Automatic annotation (TrEMBL):
InterPro entries: Glyco_trans_8, Nucleotide-diphossugar_trans, XXLT1. GO terms for molecular function: xylosyl alpha-1,3-xylosyltransferase activity. Keywords: Transferase. This is Xyloside xylosyltransferase 1. One of its GO terms (cellular component) is endoplasmic reticulum membrane. Gene3D superfamilies: Spore Coat Polysaccharide Biosynthesis Protein SpsA, Chain A (3.90.550.10). It comes from the Eukaryota. GO terms for biological process: protein O-linked glycosylation via N-acetyl-galactosamine. Pfam families: Glyco_transf_8. The keyword Transferase applies.
Length: 225
């Protein structure tokens, strides 16, 4: 077990992610402490080179299967993919991309699966650190000018940290991501069903198959065994 000092990590992270914080943070500005919500984005820059793969998970999870099985998903990454991540299971990005969607009525951006691009949820993340280090494209996308360019293109203003960054990049470069099955991150939050999207909510929320990890996001109770 290696314990990392959160202040030291934040110190390393801040210069890398400072530019994206204003686009993907809930606060009104760029807060130093916000940097930790972007840890996954730059994990490959701050972890020792000998660490080649990491699974990063939220705390509000309940495991129904062996986490070792999740490591096998790294073997399913297509060439060029650097991160494994499940789709967002609420229409949050249908909402966030409203202006882009209005200007591009035929877009798949924000549309539900299986054919749409609903965005990602970062509660369960497979980070292929070696692939992230090697990917010229991924590292270019971390540059402030590229972040600015994409946020302008998609009229994007989020508040969910790394998840927003991955979602926006995924709209432009889906080849960077290995999409995990929803059963590896079975999100339970239903907030958007009661906030204007009841008519389409179930298209995002449905998940077939035996759940491997429950995610009690937005403080949603997780089913008892």
């Amino acid at each position: 077990v290696i314990v990392h000092d959160v202040n030291e990590l934040t110190e390393k992270l801040f210069p890398i992610v400072e530019a994206m914080q204003k686009h993907f943070s809930a606060g009104s500005g760029t807060y130093y402490s916000d940097s930790i919500f972007f840890l996954s984005v730059a994990m490959h820059r701050i972890m020792p080179k000998e660490i080649t793969q990491i699974i990063q998970v939220d705390l509000d999870l309940k495991y129904k299967s062996n986490i070792r099985d999740l490591f096998d998903e790294f073997d399913n990454f297509a060439e060029g993919a650097v991160i494994g991540i499940a789709r967002e299971m609420q229409p949050v990005y249908r909402h966030t991309f409203w202006q882009y969607r209005r200007e591009n009525p035929q877009t798949k951006v924000g549309e539900p699966p299986p054919d749409g691009l609903p965005g990602f949820n970062s509660g369960v993340l497979l980070l292929n650190l070696e692939a992230m280090r090697q990917s010229k494209l991924y590292n270019q996308l971390l540059e402030p000018a590229m972040v600015q360019k994409l946020t302008e293109k998609y009229h994007f203003k989020g508040h969910l940290g790394d998840q927003d960054f991955f979602t926006m990049v995924g709209m432009e470069h889906p080849e960077l991501f290995h999409v995990l099955d929803c059963t590896w991150n079975r999100q339970l939050c239903t907030w958007w069903r009661d906030h204007g999207y009841s008519d389409v909510f179930d298209q995002y929320f449905q998940c077939e198959g035996e759940v491997k990890i429950y995610h009690g996001n937005c403080n949603t109770p997780i089913p008892e065994d």
